Amino acid sequence: MASKNETANQLSSIAEARLSLDRRLRNFRSMQKTMMPFVSVSDPQNGAPENLDLHLPSSFKRTCRPVLPSMVSLDHLQHVEAELRFAHAQEALDSLRRNLLVQVHYSKYTRANVRGQGGNTRMQSLLQQTTAKTQAIAARYSRIRQAYHSLKGEGSWERELRPLTAQDIRPLSDTHIARDKSSMTGEGHKSVSWIWRSSLSGLDSSGELNEGKSYAVTWQDILPSYI
Prior knowledge:
This protein is mostly helical. Helices cover 61% and strands 0% of the residues.
């Protein structure tokens, strides 16, 4: 009975969220007619609003973007979207790191404290949920990065927002920490994914990514909060 109630509550929450998103989308479309008059959009009446294309400047190919015959500059709109996309990419990386730390915590807690089939089943379910969330966050980051690339093209920003592969999505283990503390060069340093050096200190004055300082902040400040 409890599972049925939980399912009904989840469906109700989804329906309410879609109604709220649909209202916000209609308001956005109204502003879009003024800010982007070259965009003609007819959203389906019964479509899921979370799946609709917003038709932002990043949706258009760089070589095919129209010139606005209005008081609103498309360059300005692109700049605004680029700033939002960069911030969202940073947030996605933060969420990704946080979720990976939670996965490590679950694994350590299970090994140290959980006994019996029932407890292990529950912890495995939590791990699966966290893994699915991690994959969803990674997919969101990749979409955001693709949109940002459409707006900015190639540039130094690619050292901060790198392409994310399956091999990059791995936790920061104690082994990695020990190796990286003992030597900032060699195999130990290479074993740490770039996501643990990104977004904390950024680019230094010479335009290079300050990886050593960024990573030091990660393992000293973030890891103890979760492990």
